[in-house]
Amino acid sequence: MSLHIKAKKGEIAENVLLPGDPLRAKWIAETYLENSFCYSEVRGMFGYTGSYKGKPVSVQATGMGIPSAMIYINELIREYEVKNLIRVGSAGSYQKEIELMDIVIAMSASTNSTINKDHFQMDDFAPTANFELFMKAVDHARNNDVNFKAGNILSSDTFYEDDPDTYKKWAKYGVLCVEMETSALYTIAAKFGVNALSILTISDSLITKEELSTEKRETKMGEMIELALECF
Question: Which major enzyme category is it (predicted)?
Answer without folding.
Answer: transferase
